[in-house]
Amino acid sequence: MSSAPPTSRQRRKEARPSELLDAALALFVEKGFAATRAEEVAARAGVSKGTLYLYFPSKEELLKAVIGHTLMADIARGAEKLAQAEGPTADLLVELMTEWWSAVLDSPSSAVFKLVMTEVRNFPEIGQYYVREVVEPGHRLIGTMVQRGIDRGEFRAVDVDCVVHAIVLPMVMLCLHKHSMGACGFTDPHLPPPPQFIRQHMDLVLHGLRNPTPAA
Amino acid sequence: MSSAPPTSRQRRKEARPSELLDAALALFVEKGFAATRAEEVAARAGVSKGTLYLYFPSKEELLKAVIGHTLMADIARGAEKLAQAEGPTADLLVELMTEWWSAVLDSPSSAVFKLVMTEVRNFPEIGQYYVREVVEPGHRLIGTMVQRGIDRGEFRAVDVDCVVHAIVLPMVMLCLHKHSMGACGFTDPHLPPPPQFIRQHMDLVLHGLRNPTPAA
Amino acid sequence: MSSAPPTSRQRRKEARPSELLDAALALFVEKGFAATRAEEVAARAGVSKGTLYLYFPSKEELLKAVIGHTLMADIARGAEKLAQAEGPTADLLVELMTEWWSAVLDSPSSAVFKLVMTEVRNFPEIGQYYVREVVEPGHRLIGTMVQRGIDRGEFRAVDVDCVVHAIVLPMVMLCLHKHSMGACGFTDPHLPPPPQFIRQHMDLVLHGLRNPTPAA
Amino acid sequence: MSSAPPTSRQRRKEARPSELLDAALALFVEKGFAATRAEEVAARAGVSKGTLYLYFPSKEELLKAVIGHTLMADIARGAEKLAQAEGPTADLLVELMTEWWSAVLDSPSSAVFKLVMTEVRNFPEIGQYYVREVVEPGHRLIGTMVQRGIDRGEFRAVDVDCVVHAIVLPMVMLCLHKHSMGACGFTDPHLPPPPQFIRQHMDLVLHGLRNPTPAA
DNA sequence: AATGAATGAGGGTTCATTCAT
DNA sequence: AATGAATGAACCCTCATTCAT
Asked: From C161, which residue of chain D is nearest by alpha-carbon distance?
């Protein structure tokens, strides 16, 4: 009955918020929230200034929506894969981290890290959201894997949280770098391309973890 | 002739730029460059709006001066210490890194990392300066130490650049965190206090480096 | 042919302009013309923004139509009654003024006085219309009655125009008050309810008119 | 010591708020609050847009200040004169009302009545202020005079409040008219010039008050 | 050298009006 | 006839910068 084919007008209306959020993310990360004009966001999404305000009540609400809208999908997808994994923990971790972070680095999600960093102090709600939805689930996931390695006798009995940080922080830095120095062409000549860097980094950390006398 | 003892007025005058730079660094890092009003900087430095423009021709020039003014000292000091060090490389690295980064984290220098990150894309000159004065000297210094460990047979023959990154990136993240999420009270409950975190992190990395058959 | 009973759609269509005018009058008087949004008028009339523009080419034309549409009927009705009246002039005036103004105060017509007052200076055509259709007929009507009282020896030979003003101005103020201070709950505690006020006021004025030696 | 002659800069700064308030009153009454642009107010006061905001934090605060700033003086002056008056009550009332309202009509104060009327519904605080500072003191003052006339046997024992309204409402209407229809050139041809109208009006009302058997 | 009043360009937001559906 | 998405001119307000004192 009500399944009439959506008119082009309707199709636009449904796509609009997403288009605006994408445009906003790109610009907020590039120039900063304060230095981005609402009109620029609209223009990049291909609409006029007024239209932006049809979908978001203010620039600030747009910012919050940007944070909420992105990452979600990627986080969920990562969680699933990690949870179902089988086999030697070290291999698993290397494989999954390499894959997941490579994907994030290639997607707009990578920009969110910088956006949160630059804007939390002006909009603390952003921080709450980020900790709850990103930091904690992520930390828990990886921590579980590391603990599994220890429990199985594959890893030394190290401090789990510290290892998680050692794994994650450089990855986050990579994301931050991509959207700051990296985007300006200041690519550190010592830095290999991301997937390779990630693998090397994981190897290094896991080498430090490996139990010299496995299940002996 | 000009060696008369400086009057309090003169002393003030010489201190002004530095006071303004400190104020500017704090505010730029807290609110972002674009969201910081020139008058706020002046007020925090205890002078009037007009006075700011007596010392810096524009807000943008003030930003560049802020970047240039800070870090310098800390970098130089660190370089000296590392260069003169003696003894087993691992111990040296742990000791010096712990000490230097702890100092940086406690000083306003730590803020510069965030400032560069947030503003490079709007002012690329900042990036050039940062790479030349901070990234490269720092990388070279630590790289030299790692190489020394390998040369002496203390470390495995790993990729030096990768190790340097593994050492440095989490430290930089710590600085970024301090001035973003951390400043909002979102302290990761898994994160130990900085000096301890640094030491743990260095231990982990160096454990991964250590040669199982030293000088065998 | 066209005498088929009007469908509900047609009935709607004919009622539309009137519903819009009522909504517009209420809102223009409440918030002022400039502060009223076209969409609010439409919403209060139960139609969409676009529909408003089907009936009125612009917000300004809507305003003019509002002025023209109201009052007309009330004015005409009052004129008729006054013209046919018989008996002692004082009684007639008291009776008719009390009745007519009470009716006006209870109807939306009372709002027009305020609307004219607030908007003439921005739309002078409103003033011309108001003077021609309301002020002059009204003044002439009451003036005729007063003159009749003087001619019959019932009233002193006062200045007719001045008396008309003395009668009318407080009534108009009552209307203005109702839609400004009164609508905000600032009812003057000294003010009796309208019909009683009108009667008292008429008594006072007519006491000042009455000839002490009638037809002596 | 601190009585240095005020520089021209200082003199301007002190005069500014007043100049802005005068400009604002004139424009708000002419075009209505909503239809007046902040820049117009500034321009009429001979300053730039930004300067307006140096003295008033928003357009709305400017409106409130306008109401509060005007009338004050005139009200106070009127109160004094009325209080000190001597002689037959009727003469006193005629004299003082004529003089005071003529003065008000010639001053910018007369505009405040219209401003309050047009804007109360959007800014109810205005109403509270107006009732407290203008309506009630004024009513009390005139009421006292009328009561005095009754007490001395000069006036009939009429309803005092009703008389006060009969006296005042036409005067207020005169003020409203001056700044609405009157300002558009729609001068009622039956209306004599204000001072004469006021005197005639007072005569009419007092004739209705006068006791036919004074002190008999 | 220091101040802070003044400026005016710039950016967020609203809303009358249009027009494809 | 009716809708409501889209537009863009207009308006409030901010703030970097200037300059008379």
From this structure: D190
Find tokens 């997403």 and name the residue.
A18
Give Cα C134 to chain centroid, integer Å.
8
Pick the range with the lowest mean pLDDT from A48-52, A148-152, A210-214, C190-194.
A210-214
Domain B8-67 has CATH 1.10.10.60: yes
Q: How far is CA A55 from CA A20, A49, A52, C25, D89, in A?
A: 9, 11, 6, 31, 68
Encoded tokens for C9: 């759609």
Q: For the residues of A19-41, what is the DSSP string, one character each?
A: HHHHHHHHHHHHH-TTTS-HHHH
Of C209, C192, C105, C179, nearest in space to D165 by CA: C192
Q: Which class is D70-209 in CATH?
A: mainly alpha
Phi, psi of D210 (to 5 degrees): -55, 135
Superfamily name and number for A8-63: Homeodomain-like (1.10.10.60)
Element (DSSP H or E) covering residue C75: helix C72-84
Amino acid letter for position B129: Y
Burial of C163 (0-12, 13-18, 19+ CB in 10 A): buried
Structure tokens at B199: 């030491």
Nearest-angstrom CA–CA distance, B110 and B100:
11
CATH topology of domain C8-66: Arc Repressor Mutant, subunit A (1.10.10)
Q: Quick check: B117 and A121 CB within 8 A?
A: no
Taking the C1' atom of E11, which residue's CA lies nearest? A37
Q: Do D201 and C165 touch (CB under 8 A)?
A: yes
Domain ranges for chain B, please list them. 8-67, 70-209
* Angle in degrees, 0-180, between the axes of helices C160-178 and C136-151, rounded to the nearest 10: 140
Indicate yes or no: pTM above 0.70: yes
Biggest distance spanned by C-alpha atoms of chain A: 70
Q: Which residues pair with B49 in a beta bridge?
A: none
List residues bridging with B155 in a β-sheet.
B210
φ, ψ for residue A210, nearest 5 deg: -55, 135
HSE-up (13 A, CA, CB side) for residue C39: 0
DSSP state of B191: P
Query: How far is residue B93's CA from residue B110's CA, in Å, rounded to a whole number?
Result: 20
Phi and psi at residue C177, to the nearest 5°? -60, -45
- CA distances C120 to A120, C108, C114, D30, Å, are 52, 19, 10, 9
Q: From CA A70, how far away is CA A134, in angstroms rounded? A: 11
Q: Do C204 and D135 touch (CB under 8 A)?
A: no
Amino acid at B154: E
Which residue in C42, C70, C37 sits closest to C54, CA to CA?
Answer: C42
Q: Which residue is closest to B128 within chain A, CA to CA?
A: A186
Residue of higher predicted confidence among A7 and C7: A7
Q: What is the pLDDT of residues D204-213, one digit of tens each?
A: 888 888 887 5
| Averaged confidence pLDDT in chain D | 88
Which of B172, B178, B184 is the best substitution to test chain A (most A C-beta atoms within 10 A)?
Answer: B184
Mean of pLDDT values over A45-53 = 97
Question: 10 Å Cβ neighbour count for A110?
Answer: 25
Instruction: Tell me the pLDDT tens digit for each residue of B105-123.
Output: 999 999 999 999 999 999 9
